[in-house]
Design brief:
The complex is a heterodimer of chains A (244) and B (299).
Chain A (H helix, E strand, L loop, with lengths): L3 E10 L2 E11 L4 E5 L6 H9 L6 E6 L2 E2 L5 H6 L2 E4 L11 H9 L5 H5 L4 H14 L15 H14 L4 E5 L7 H14 L4 E5 L3 H7 L2 E6 L2 E6 L1 H6 L1 H6 L5
Chain B lengths: L1 H30 L6 H18 L5 H24 L6 H21 L16 E2 L2 E2 L3 H24 L1 H11 L1 H7 L3 H27 L9 H14 L5 H20 L4 H15 L7 H14 L1
Antiparallel strand pairs in B: 1-2
Helix pairs in contact in B: 1-5, 1-6, 1-8, 1-9, 1-10, 2-3, 2-4, 2-8, 3-8, 5-6, 5-8, 6-7, 9-10
The chains are: A alpha/beta (244), B mainly alpha (299).
Chain lengths: 244, 299
């Protein structure tokens, strides 16, 4: 059984077809890249996967269960976690509180009111902060972190809940080369625990990291293959590589 | 003695409005529910108590408060389900709907004869506790103080719990909270229900301590004033709005006598200046001064 299966998904906004009959899949512990020029529909496809918008046609299956019309909350409960293109963390809250927010999302209101899980989550918070090099900033507000650290914090928040599928929208946007290299290591480490889908502009970054890459153009998936196959695919060169 | 009683009455009123302010702060300041409807729930509590006490012999404050809290919570639940279940709605939508609710309540109270129309319900008897009448200004003050203290302690516990963090997450980025798996609508409805119960209990206290209820206590003016106390004191802090309320109500009495026509303009100016220069309210001023001193020292 595939971890994620996207079957003939189409997304229309009025007469505009943003994603046209796209199909792809992700296996457990696999890192799959989704690339394409601006306006190719990769963000829209990602949004239909995470539940920000719903597919007009087609089906999305997570571990064999259909989630096409499920809300983001239910997709999160099913084991999906996302890091947005612009880090969407709680800037006024501390790093510790941000990770706690991710961890306690599935706790009932009554447990939250009693702060019943605070101590139990403390170990997990320290562990995940150490893994993402954020341990010394645990009690600092998230707004005081560097751009790269804020991106890591969002990935840390996503990974804290042990997801089965991690969605990353341009995880290295605006990062320094050192931060990009560190991020690649973190993603590789994450893939030992779950499947990863990365939406990226940067082909160099993605080809080193991904097991497979799918290329979107005008809402269609025009090629899928290993990084080497994608690099040598004439159709990809024509529609994507020459434009970057 | 008469002067002392007057002062006690003022402080009692501040404590009662304090409960209303807490309900707005929990909704708007902590959870991002921009409500202009808390006065409607305050009025509801007041009118429920007004009707019960004038049409029956029931005056026990414990039972009256309980009834007001239940009625307020049920009404809050109905409004909350209507506002928050389903898709996300913007702050402006919530503000307009709750504003409309306040307007409707004031109009209804003004026109329904059963609610006393424009005159409201006068002659509300003093409340009793264990069969003993609370008939003095001091007794009413202690009653208001106890209920206010309970409301404040509960609010502090909620805001400092893990649920308080969830409330802030919904306030700061409700879509993000949904992607973590939070049932955003349930969080908003729960807070709205609790705040509605608080507002209604405040209204009940107002009715028994003032001895009357009138349409204005459920209307737009009080709703707006409460939001302004929160703006002035600092949204997102429990004590800021309470300080603003105390300051304005205390100064209000003297200034309305001294500068009757100029005082509302001065309050408006104070609000305008606060919103422009201290968007986090007057209580953020010390932190702002410290920050500017640090900047000056480092440069």
């Amino acid at each position: 059984m595939k971890l994620l299966e996207i079957s003939s998904v189409t997304k229309k906004f009025g007469s505009l077809v943003a994603v046209d009959n796209a199909s792809m899949f992700i296996n457990q512990n696999e890192i799959v890249g989704l690339i394409g020029p601006n306006g190719s529909g990769k963000s829209t496809l990602l949004h239909t996967i995470c539940g920000r918008t719903f597919a007009t046609e087609g089906a999305i299956l997570l571990q064999g269960s259909e989630i096409t019309n499920k809300t983001p909350q239910n997709r999160a409960k099913a084991g999906m976690a996302i890091k947005f293109q612009l880090a969407r963390i709680y800037l006024e809250k501390t790093v510790r509180e941000n990770i706690l927010l991710s961890l306690q999302a599935k706790e009932s209101i009554f447990r939250q009111l009693r702060s019943a899980s605070l101590k139990a989550f403390e170990v997990k918070i320290n562990e995940i902060a150490r893994e993402f090099q954020l341990e010394e900033y645990l009690d600092e507000p998230a707004k005081s972190l560097s751009h790269g650290q804020q991106q890591w914090l969002e990935i840390a928040m996503a990974m804290a809940v042990d997801p089965i599928l991690l969605l990353l929208d341009e995880p290295t946007a605006g990062m320094s080369p050192k931060e990009r290299a560190d991020t690649a290591l973190l993603i590789k480490k994450a893939s030992k625990k779950c499947g990863v889908l990365i939406v990226e502009h940067d082909l160099d970054f993605i080809k080193e990291l991904c097991n497979r890459i799918s290329v979107l153009h005008h809402g269609n998936i025009v090629a899928t293959g290993t990084p080497a196959e994608i690099e040598n695919d004439p159709k990809v060169k024509e529609v994507y590589l020459t434009r970057v | 003695m008469a002067g002392n009683d007057y002062l006690t009455q003022i402080v009692t009123r501040i404590l009662i409005y304090g409960i209303l302010v807490l309900s707005v702060e929990l909704c708007w300041g902590q959870t991002g529910i921009f409500t202009f409807g808390q006065a409607a729930l305050f009025g509801l509590g007041g009118y429920v108590v007004g009707l019960i006490t004038t049409k029956s012999t029931l005056t026990d404050i414990g039972i009256l408060l309980l009834i007001a809290i239940v009625v307020g919570a049920v009404t809050g639940l109905i409004i909350g389900i209507f506002l928050f279940s389903g898709k996300r709605v913007g702050e402006l939508y919530v503000a307009l709907v709750t504003l409309a609710i306040s307007y409707i309540c004031e109009r209804l109270a003004n026109s329904w004869t059963v609610l006393g129309s424009g005159n409201g319900i006068p002659g509300i008897p003093y409340p009793t506790i264990f069969g003993k009448e609370i008939g003095s200004a001091t007794g009413l003050f202690f009653l208001a103080f106890v209920v206010f203290a309970i409301a404040l302690i509960l609010s502090i516990i909620i805001v400092n719990s893990q649920f308080g963090l969830t409330m802030n997450a919904v306030r700061d980025d409700e879509e993000r909270a949904e992607f973590f798996g939070y049932q955003r609508s349930i969080v908003q409805i729960a807070v709205f229900v609790f705040a509605a119960a608080l507002a209604a209990s405040g209204g009940a206290l107002f009715a028994v301590s003032e001895g009357f209820v009138s349409p204005s206590m459920s209307g737009l003016a009080l709703s707006t004033t409460t939001v302004l106390w929160v703006v002035l004191g600092g949204r997102g802090t429990l004590f800021g709005p309470l300080i603003a309320l105390t300051f304005l109500e205390a100064v209000n009495i003297k200034m309305q006598e001294a500068l009757p026509s100029l005082w509302p303009i001065l309050v408006g100016l104070l609000l305008l200046i606060t919103m422009i220069f201290l968007p986090k309210g007057l209580t953020s001023m010390p932190a702002k001064i410290r920050e500017s001193r640090r900047k000056t020292a480092s440069s």
